[in-house]
Amino acid sequence: MFPPLQDLYRIAPELVLCAFGMLVMLIDPFVPATRKRSMGWLAFAGTLVALASLRWAALNQGSAYSGLFRVDMFSLFVHAIVIGVSALAILGSFDYLDRENIQRGEYYALILFATAGMGILAGSTELITAFVGLEMSSISTYILVGFRRTVLKSNESSLKYFLLGSFATAFFLYGIALTYGATRSTRFDVVNQAIAAHGAGPLLILGLGLIFVGLGFKVVAAPFQIYTPDVYEGAPTPVTAILACGPKAAAFAVMLRIFYSAFGSASHVWFWAIWVSAILTMCIGNFAALVQTNVKRLLAYSSIAHAGYILVAFAAASEIGVAAVLFYLAAYAAMTLGAFLIVAHVGGTNEQRLNIEDYAGLGTKHPWIAACFALFLFSLLGLPATGGFLGKLYAFQSALDQRIVWLVVIAAVNSVIGAYYYLKVVVAMYFHESNKEWAPMPMRAPMFVVLLLTAIATIYFGVLPNRLMELAIASARSLR
Q: What DSSP state is assigned to residue 262?
């Protein structure tokens, strides 16, 4: 029997993304090598149609496929983030792929398939469904990380990501098995009812711990973050931009569903694990970033630190805490995507300009690029009038409301520490003389549009945050 039409409407974004991904793969062999960029435009069209299809999903909110998947404000919010990230990353990849001579249709198809997996993660209300989404996203990104096949560092990163990701997946599966053994179900609502009726026994606590290991790997939370700097550095920089934003948002979304919907009655069990992980994540990310001279590795450690700030709001275990997580994810996606795509643009052929000293004089020679990069770094730092400032403010306030004072104090100290390495790059751009001649860096329309949109979003979220926060609060209310 065919599924009800409403179920198809509810998974419309995933259907559109997969359909366009397969279309790209089918057409690509017949497209001349000189016109492969057209596959990127087709994939970009697919992301726009997927964003439009969110309207169909919004009009048919509810559970799909016998409760395995749910469309609500929460899943729609996360869908908009991950699809928007993929759309902008596709636009920002055109010049990079041409320059590296790796313009291939499968690159864009893999992005679409990965995004579909992220969407399934965001809407899953059952552990096996979440696992399917996790694997769809992971397998695609394993290949994308190694897309520069002639570069040894890219191959090394892909292998490392695959091996460690496989271990993390195994932990996640074992956690699912133990949860099923303790509750006789993998559905979030049934697990929650079982905990409310019988409490969280040792088997269930162990299962939750293993699930956290598997998802902690995807959100780069400590102590599962060790792969991040090497993988982010070796991957093609537009792929790094996707890894830092899309999978992290989707993994945090499914973590929120699991911890709040399935294990909400056992918050006293997982609170301290989140508390300790948040502190480790912030400290490791910030202190390691202090000594970096490579901009990609610096931003990789920054990504780890920001996962810790998000965990501060996560630990609040409240409706406003969930809303703060969602707001932070949206603001973080804009500023981090823009920052990494600037690194891709400035890096040049074979990513030659990746050291901080390579950015000396950028403010004089290419003021538009330097201004955008400075804006994104200021937002990552958390300066007022940027999305990063309000993201941290809402995260810390949600924790203070629950009297988690020491966690907020440690987070605030870490924010001050982070100022050093962000400002180090800004100082190099505007106050250091370049030791080499800057070659012309023409910026084509797609990249210009991406930087313009991410810069506008970064400022908009910092100056006029009310609309986004209202959507985040409505999404948080739909989670229960």
A: I
Which of 378, 392, 375, 382 has the alpha carbon at shortest distance from 327? 392
Task: Tell me the C-alpha distance between 224 and 217, whole Å.
Answer: 5
Measure CA of the first residue to CA of the last residue in the chain; give whole Å. Answer: 31
Give backbone dihedrals phi and psi of 465, rounded to 5 degrees, phi first.
Answer: -85, -5
Which tens digit of pLDDT belongs to each residue from 406-431?
Answer: 999 999 999 999 999 999 999 999 98
pLDDT at 479: 81
Residue 302 CB coordination number (10 Å): 24
Rounded CA-CA distance 368/356 in Å is: 18
For the chain, the average pLDDT equals 90
Helices 73-100, 237-256: inter-axial angle, 10-degree rounding? 170
Q: Is 67 left (phi over 0), alpha (psi -120 to 50) or beta?
A: left
Judge whether residue 1 has pLDDT over 70.
Answer: no
CA dihedral defined by 35, 37, 38, 40, rounded to 10 degrees? Answer: 160
The two most distant CA atoms of the chain are separated, in Å, by 70
pLDDT tens sequence across 55-88: 888 888 888 888 889 999 999 999 999 999 999 9
